[in-house]
Amino acid sequence: MKCHDILLVEDDPDQVTLLQEAFAEVKVSYILHVVQDGVDAMKYLLQEGEYGGTPRPDLILLDLNLPRKDGWEVLREVKSEDSLRAIPVIVFTSSADQSNINQCYTLGANCFITKPAKFEDLVKIADLIEHFWLGAVALPAPV
């Protein structure tokens, strides 16, 4: 089984830890790369500065509420950049607002998931990500 590179764009360290624990519960084969704001997300994706030589992620988990550059801007930039456009972006945020969901899909998000309140539900989401996005789906090769 291939070890997948996942870029998690999340500014809350508790959320990062919970997601790491949820992925560990379902034994996802992954390397989780974490950046805490949208500016660093784009630097990572474009391999700029301290992120030179970083692996291209197979999947991006993107929070919308980020400092310096929010997730909306990151989503717009990723989906407008030829070298990044094909990377699946899962918006993973606390919002359940239908207008936010619609707007994310309009901007090119591949999936929208509202962060669950219970850890057991987060484990279920990690399992779905593992089986669907990292198992069943044929992911694009780097451009």
The SSE order reads EHEHEHEHEH
Strand order of the largest sheet: 2-1-3-4-5
Largest sheet: 5 strands, parallel
CATH superfamily: Response regulator
CATH class: Alpha Beta
* Overall body shape: globular
Number of helices: 5
Number of domains: 1
CATH architecture: 3-Layer(aba) Sandwich
Helix content: 40-55%
Mean pLDDT across all amino acids: 91
Q: Tell me which oligomeric state these chains represent.
A: single chain
> What is the alpha-carbon Rg in Å?
14 Å
- Work out the strand percent: 15-25%
Please tell me about this protein's structure.
The chain has 143 residues and is α/β, with parallel strands linked by helices. It is 41% helix and 17% strand. It has helices at 13-25, 38-45, 71-80, 98-106, 119-136; strands at residues 4-9, 30-35, 59-62, 89-93, 111-114. It has a five-stranded parallel beta sheet with strand order 2-1-3-4-5. Strand 4 (89-93), helix 4 and strand 5 form a beta-alpha-beta unit. Helix 1 crosses helix 5 and helix 2 (38-45) packs parallel to helix 3. It starts with a strand and ends in a 7-residue tail after the last helix.
Explain briefly what this protein structure is:
With 143 residues, the protein is an alpha/beta fold. The protein has helices at residues 13-25, 38-45, 71-80, 98-106, 119-136, and strands at 4-9, 30-35, 59-62, 89-93, 111-114. Helix 1 (13-25) crosses helix 5 (119-136).
Notable traits:
143 residues; alpha/beta; Rossmann fold; 5-stranded parallel β-sheet; 17% strand
Outline the secondary-structure elements:
Layout lengths: L3 E6 L3 H13 L4 E6 L2 H8 L13 E4 L8 H10 L8 E5 L4 H9 L4 E4 L4 H18 L7
Parallel strand pairs: 1-2, 1-3, 3-4, 4-5
Helix pairs in contact: 1-5, 2-3
